UniProtKB/TrEMBL annotation:
NCBIfam families: dxs (TIGR00204), PRK05444.2-2 (NF003933). GO terms for molecular function: 1-deoxy-D-xylulose-5-phosphate synthase activity; magnesium ion binding; thiamine pyrophosphate binding. This is 1-deoxy-D-xylulose-5-phosphate synthase. It holds the Pfam family DXP_synthase_N. The keyword Metal-binding applies. Its EC number is 2.2.1.7. Binds 1 Mg(2+) ion per subunit. Binds 1 thiamine pyrophosphate per subunit. Residues 1-36 are annotated as: Disordered. Homodimer. SUPFAM superfamilies: Thiamin diphosphate-binding fold (THDP-binding) (SSF52518), TK C-terminal domain-like (SSF52922). Keywords: Isoprene biosynthesis, Magnesium, Metal-binding, Thiamine biosynthesis, Thiamine pyrophosphate, Transferase. It catalyses: D-glyceraldehyde 3-phosphate + pyruvate + H(+) = 1-deoxy-D-xylulose 5-phosphate + CO2.
Amino acid sequence: MIPEDHPAAQSDTPHPDAPASGAQATAPALPDTLGTPLLDRISGPADLRGLSDAELVALADELRREVVADVARTGGHLASSLGVVELTVALHAVFNTPADKLVWDVGHQCYPHKILTGRRAAMAGLRQKDGISGFTKRAESPYDPFGAAHSSTSISAALGFAQGRELGAPTGDAIAVIGDGSITAGMAYEAMNHAGDLGTRLFVILNDNDMSIAPPVGAMSQYLTRLGETLPLAALKQVADGVESALPGPWREGARRARRLVTGLQGGATLFEELGFTYIGPVDGHDLPELLACLRAARARADGPVLIHVQTVKGKGYAPAEAAPDTYHGVGTFDPATGVAKSKPANAPSYTSVFGQALTAAAGRDPSIIGITAAMPSGTGLDIMARQFPRRVFDVGIAEQHGVTFAAALAAAGLRPFCAIYSTFLQRGYDQVVHDVALQGLPVRFAIDRAGLVGQDGATHAGSFDIAFLANLPNMVVMAAADEAELVHMVETAVAHDDGPIAFRYPRGAGRGVPIPERGEVLEIGRGRILREGTDVAILSYGAHLGECLAAAEALAGQGISATVADARFARPLDTDLIDRLVAHHGGLVTVEQGASGGFGAHVLHHLAASGRLDGGLRVRTMMLPDRFIDQASPAEMYAEAGLTAGDIAATARVVSGRG
Ligand SMILES: Cc1ncc(C[n+]2csc(CCOP(=O)(O)OP(=O)(O)O)c2C)c(N)n1
Ligand SMILES: CC(=O)[C@@H](O)[C@H](O)COP(=O)(O)O
Ligand SMILES: [Mg+2]
């Protein structure tokens, strides 16, 4: 983990606490480039199919340099993309994309794929406003048959294509590429379970680099390591020559028995074989000739689901990324010669680190506090607590559903669990939030990071819906932090709240730079606060847009309109006294939130309607995210597109004040 004040930890694109490192400054990080003669000849994957294997090897080398050069300029998910350079070349050379459907899990490793599929020039706008997405996206290319960004969907999607083909759809083969981190999620097993039962011809490439964002966790990860150790790479050569499962029955059994003797694997079959897949591997994912031989053999002979276990190195071929694949998972702009980040340090600590420190301090006082993360220890700041209290922090893998239910039972057992999950990923655990937590009234604390628009990860990662999907749940308390000091209070409030579930949300990136209290106060549940008194119009902020609301009030003052600014703090229970006072004493009310419709403003409107206050022509506007998905850009650009700048708020408040 890079200290927060290290320049490399303050990039413009990556997660706020662990981006690009300034490693290996003495030696060149990448050998000198010799140009890109082969890449210049490639206009699409079909051109790859005319190259010799030796040329493909040279092409992979050019491609790797290009990925580094591109990401150095824009930032992005570097290490994962570098690890699949050879695999990408091999897949496009062997399979007939786009008729064959290639589905990248998460899609954060798809930069070599984008370069080879007609988006080489567009890489200059990677993850930028009006540029291309950092993930696979159907609208972007026919070579992206299925969009992604949340993990572990690829096998289900590929199976859908494969089964579609069986039902007559004009689709070729279907190939899912899933990482060892992403295959920890339940969805992957649901899909394999189904695929094994259907027996449909399908290819799953398990890209095993022994890393998730952080080092991988779990029994599955240990199992894959054991597979790698017990199944010698050399044994694969035979398989590539004659895919075991394609052998006539008695020979196939013989081959299995022989392999059992060689590998000592219990029962002789891998977990994947037990699920009905032909298992091939492990294959060295950087040995392109071996990869090509293996994929060609599998493509020629597979008659059911096949899993090809490919071992790769995350960050392969770029020294800083190989040395620190977690840091280079997602990076800001950097100098490609050294790996040193170019971005400037932020002026305030990130919300994530403020949360991590406040929770760690609370955990020092209260041994019942438990931290739970779903494969995002540094992204959520739980790594801070883990360093001090390793036995009380659980990384459950990419398993949000399990994480929530696990937390529910910890709460039932009398502990104080904090489930720290990004807003966008909590979507995956929603039934568990409803059924296991809220319905049973269990005091799980939800620390919801990355609330609101997150920037360059774009629409897939926007934390838009949590207010709406939490604030309608009976038993749930729902808070939003207006700044980093409020976040510290909310951690303390959540610790003290044993009566039922409680959630607090806060955005990605740096705080507002307000003084941070050493220890938070326990807030009164359902009470907001007034920050600025005015008479003409009331602006009621919920969450981290408070700064924009205050700026709007300042702008209005310059126009002779006096605005009250209040911070609601709670979307559930609502501070109805505060709302009633605001509407009683002002010409109108504007609510502002960093969330989608159906959230805070909807609850305010509901209260005003139910209490009859709307009957007399009260002027109210609810400002929230628009009813559409907003593509990648900086958060400021995205909020501008959403119509949520301070200027937009001032303009709305002016109208509502009756003085505009
Ligand atoms: C549902 C969900 N939870 C969490 C994440 C965040 N996330 C993105 S990539 C990643 C690690 C993936 O590891 P792996 O599949 O092994 O790919 P690698 O980065 O190693 O290539 C995680 C946890 C996500 N995208 N989706
Ligand atoms: C691909 C993915 O889901 C993560 O890598 C994500 O991009 C991390 O986001 P932060 O940078 O906000 O932690
Ligand atoms: Mg991995």
